[in-house]
Amino acid sequence: MEIIYLDEVESTQLFLIEKIKKKELLPPVAIITKKQTDGVGSRGNRWIGEEGNLFLSFALKKSSLPDDIPNQSLSIYFSYILKEILSQKGSKIWLKWPNDFYIEDRKVGGTLTTKIKDIVVCGIGLNVVSNPAKFGKLDISIDLDELIDDYFSKLKEKISWKEIFSKYKLEFHKRKNFSFTYEGKKVFADSAKLCEDGSLKIDKKRIYSLR
Fold first, then answer.
1. DSSP β-bridge partners for residue 55
2. Burial of residue 22, with CB atoms counted within 10 A of its CB: 0-12 exposed, 13-18 middle, 19 or more buried
3. 71: helix, strand or coil
4. DSSP 3-state assignment of 158?
5. Minimal CA–CA distance to 107: which of 85, 78, 79?
């Protein structure tokens, strides 16, 4: 994995997507910045953070990932692997469907995944040392370089979607008292069934991750 470090950038994800489209960068490659000024958050929101937090985007060939991962659940896959590493380091972080990181009832980060032909671009933001109002931050002290090394090493193991989903499914059922926004409406997870492909089934309708 080639890792490129930037002092500051508007969005690691948009920067990497542009470079990939122009073929100026090729996977496997990652962009890490100390400061992000106009990051992309869920549902079109901005994800801005101060120096010391995690701002990471990486690109991989889809063929380098396990064959059984549904495209619509790539974000769950990438998110859960990071969540598991942080849990092993002592964090009480949990993953709210489909790809938001939480400590208790406060969002501390999230994941966005985009597919460009046969290339997957994933962006991860995580409040490690500071957080805006109404958000939270990680509950443990970590070395970001070590975390990133651990994360990419784990991705190289090509853990199957089946294995990741079996663990995620247990966590989902333990934390079904949350809600999320879908088509402008609040949906409660306790009224949904988690399907094998990572989608939620509500009133006979399947809802997939939108990011």
1. 125
2. exposed
3. helix
4. coil
5. 79
Q: Are strands 54-61 and 94-96 parallel, antiparallel or unpaired?
A: unpaired
Give pTM, 2 decimals.
0.90
Is the pLDDT confidence value at 43 over 50? no
Give the residue extent of every domain in the chain. Answer: 2-174
Please confirm whether the linkage preceding 28 is cis (ω < 30° from 0): yes
DSSP-derived secondary structure for 171-192: HHHH----EEEETTEEEEGGG-
Confidence of residue 44 (pLDDT cuts 50, 70, 90): very low
Backbone angles phi, psi at 193, to 5 degrees: -110, 130
Q: 118: number of CA atoms within 13 Å, CB side?
A: 6
2-174 topology per CATH: BirA Bifunctional Protein; domain 2 (3.30.930)
Which residue, chain included where needed, has tokens 């046969």?
Answer: 118
d(CA 131, CA 107): 10
pLDDT at 173: 82
Can you list the alpha helix ranges (DSSP code H) found in the chain?
A: 12-21, 74-88, 144-156, 161-174
